[in-house]
Design brief:
This protein is of the alpha+beta class and 99 residues long. It contains two helices and nine strands, in the order ββαββββββαβ. The protein has one domain. Helices cover 15% and strands 43% of the residues.
């Protein structure tokens, strides 16, 4: 699946390919993955405990709560089934603020 990796510490966003939620956990570096919808067909997946762990490199998408560390943006269907991201790299970049 087409997705995007956001790395807060590097202040970078890159297009990636994933095949499962396990890939997301591996990229983020933790097993405690939660998500927030960023629109009606895309979500950001990140470490639920990123602030408790003291992870550096914070960023914010639109008005969502800030995230620290790494996150993955991908598309989703009903029941949290993952699919290709429908947002472009340019659109996503315009919506992210590195803190």
């Amino acid at each position: 699946m087409h997705a995007f990796l956001i790395e807060g510490k590097k202040q970078a966003i890159e297009a990636i390919e994933i095949s499962s939620r396990a890939d997301i956990a591996k990229l983020v570096g933790q097993d405690t993955i939660i998500s927030d919808e960023i629109d009606d067909s895309n979500a950001v997946y990140f470490d639920e405990d990123c602030f408790i762990r003291g992870t550096s490199g914070r960023f914010q998408i639109d008005k969502l709560a800030p995230v620290a560390g790494k996150a993955v943006v991908t598309g989703y269907l009903a029941g949290e089934q993952l699919t290709n991201a429908s947002i472009s790299l340019e659109e996503l970049t315009a919506r992210i603020i590195f803190l």
